[in-house]
Amino acid sequence: MSYFVRKISRSKWEVDGNGAVNADAITNCMKTTGNTLSFWRVDSETEISGAVLALAAANDNLDKMDVVVIPEAVFKALEITIAETPGKTACEKLAHTHRDLANLTIKELASVADVLADKIRSGGTTRYTLGKLRALLLAAIEEKLLDFDLLSDGIKKKLRPKPPSEPCPTCGAVKQ
């Protein structure tokens, strides 16, 4: 079974019980371009970290990330057009896994919002901490899946090891 993965801003999705989706969730977290909404497709749950890698490598900065995972069949059942489009990510080897929900109308966008809200209500989000994302990116660089030089300066800064502290010239102790 295939899945679609999308980064969300958890704070925008303050869904309470079966209440309506906040407008900010749609206008900020589901911003469309050319009537499309971006997702990353994986063939199994074991490949979700690849989508998270593509998402993290596409950012300007590295910070915690919440993702939601939706079975592709859900969007197909809603008869939403799915387009294979190259993803914008520094992880070029995963760019082909990008998908857009395409030709979206406001009605279809509202349906997608309901799907995401239901998933969030049921606890179906996963948080990736800065430490987990850093480890994921460093492993991908080590395995030659990702070129460090293609990452944004903000991410490079968070991946570089901190310079060692200089020892005290008097006692030789290293400042922590």
Please characterize this protein's 3D structure.
This protein is α+β, with helices and mostly antiparallel strands and 176 residues long. 34% of the residues lie in helices and 18% in strands. The protein has one domain. It has a 6-stranded antiparallel beta sheet. The longest helix is centred in the middle third of the chain and has 16 residues, at 106-121. It is elongated and about 70 Å long. It starts with a strand and ends in a 17-residue tail after the last helix.
The oligomeric state is single chain
Strand line-up across the major sheet: 4-5-2-1-3-6
Proportion of residues in extended strands: 15-25%
Count of alpha and pi helical runs: 6
Q: Report the helical percentage.
A: 25-40%
Uncertain stretches:
none
Let me know the largest β-sheet.
Answer: 6 strands, antiparallel
List the domain count as a whole number: 1
Distance between the termini: 48 Å
Q: In one word, what is the shape?
A: elongated
Based on helices, strands and strand pairing, what is the structural class? alpha+beta
* Quantity of strands, as a count: 6
The overall pLDDT average reads 90
